[in-house]
Amino acid sequence: MTSSQLTPPVQAGDHISGPDDAPVTLVEYGDYECPYCGMAYSIVKQAQETLGNHLRFVFRNFPLAEAHPHARLAAQAAEAAGAQGKFWEMHDTLFEHQDALEPEDILGYARELGLDVARFTQELESGSHTKKVRDDFRSGVRSGVNGTPTFFVNGARYEGSWANEEAFVRALREGRAAALSQT
Amino acid sequence: MTDSVSANGANAILPAGVPAPDFTLSSAPDKTLHLADLRGRPVILVFYPADWSPVCGDQVALYNEILPEFREYGAELVGISVDSVWCHAAFARDRNLHFPLLADFEPKGAVARSYGAYREHDGTTERALFVIDRDGIVRWSYCSPIGVNPGADGILNALESLAGDSKRPAAETSVPQQREIRA
């Protein structure tokens, strides 16, 4: 259990930001209501800016819904926004408003993002994205996720500190070097 | 995966292949749990050092979330520490736990000792996991470094291999109820 590997690897259906041929792929398993994920959100943003096209970032849902009562609906809201091409916009909005994740807040975000709110609401009410969120969660459990956020760098669980931005970016750079040297 | 691992070498916990020592412990101020009563289905025994400590909190929160996955294998999850029933009751209520916590309280740590999972110098149990088959035989065990949340992938792999030995896990469980959301 010390060498947990991302299972399954990044695949169609994942939410991906950055080029497919980027030498470094960072996968986060996260929860929109988790305060540590909120801290990690801005650090990942910085890493994306610093590393530019060398980094591909993927977000998978890992809502700890028993501890965070708003987490599951928030995860489904991001997926429902994704169905209208605005996953990352909703992802960012949710992390920037972790203290306002009630259903009416989330509908407000959908409106602000210019989504088709009727469709968005219908999909949340009917549970259209329940399976995707659950599948993400299961893949996290299989991959050895033991809390949120858990990161994977090029498929291997990242065991270092993410809270120190410099150390995190350095580790990502090393991940990139490893990927380049393999080709 | 090896059958029995002591990641810190501090304790030789019971390995796979031996009968799980039977016990009866309090699960609530007015209730007890007898291990032998769970025969016929897999049992996951989770020894953890203490209620309320940060890593335990994450670990039990994670297992609480993964209960539906464990139950697909028909498995029962049981937590054990040396904390008292009243402490467990408060902890379980605070964390909204849906599985029993047993009090290995008097004589202190007696059950943990019988599994090789007692830390004499700390007066707590190890962070040790056991998967017991339907006939009461330990089929997998793992002792994690005390400060490391071991996750659930090892447990699920063990349950999967048990299910492969007998029958496949039940089909998908029903999806959780949706929260209503109104526009």
Give a verbal description of the structure:
The complex is a heterodimer of chains A (183) and B (183). Chain A contains 7 helices and 5 strands. Chain A has 183 residues and is α+β, with helices and mostly antiparallel strands. A 5-stranded mixed sheet of chain A has the order 1-3-2-4-5, with helices on both faces. In chain A, strand 4 and strand 5 form a beta hairpin. In chain A, helix 1 crosses helix 7 and helix 2 packs antiparallel against helix 3. The longest helix of chain A has 18 residues. Chain A is globular. The two termini of chain A are 28 Å apart. By secondary structure, chain B is of the alpha/beta class. In chain B, the strands form 3 sheets. Chain B has a 6-stranded mixed sheet. In chain B, strands 2-3 form a two-stranded antiparallel ribbon. The radius of gyration of chain B is 16 Å and the shape is globular. The N terminus and C terminus of chain B are likely disordered. The interface between A and B is medium-sized, with 32 and 31 residues.
Topology:
The complex is a heterodimer of chains A (183) and B (183).
Chain A: E1 15-17, E2 24-30, H1 35-51, E3 55-61, H2 71-82, H3 87-96, H4 103-112, H5 117-126, H6 130-143, E4 150-153, E5 156-157, H7 165-182
Helix pairs in contact in A: 1-7, 2-3
Chain B: E1 4-6, E2 24-28, E3 31-34, E4 43-47, H1 54-72, E5 76-81, H2 85-95, E6 101-103, H3 110-114, E7 118-119, E8 124-125, E9 127-132, E10 138-144, H4 153-165
Parallel strand pairs in B: 1-10, 4-5, 5-6
Antiparallel strand pairs in B: 2-3, 4-9, 7-8, 9-10
In percent, how helical is the residue content of chain B?
A: 25-40%
Helix-strand topology string of chain A: EEHEHHHHHEEH
Mean pLDDT of chain A: 92
Largest sheet of chain A: 5 strands, mixed
Strands side by side in the biggest sheet of chain A: 1-3-2-4-5
Report the β-strand fraction of chain B as a percent range.
15-25%
- Cα separation of the termini of chain B: 50 Å
Strand content of chain A: 5-15%
Shape of chain A: globular
Biggest sheet character of chain B:
6 strands, mixed
Q: By helix and strand content of chain A, what is the structural category?
A: alpha+beta
Shape of chain B: globular
Structural class of chain B: alpha/beta
- Spans of at least 5 consecutive residues with low confidence of chain A: 177-183
Q: How many helical elements of chain A?
A: 7
Question: Mean pLDDT of chain B, as a whole number?
Answer: 87
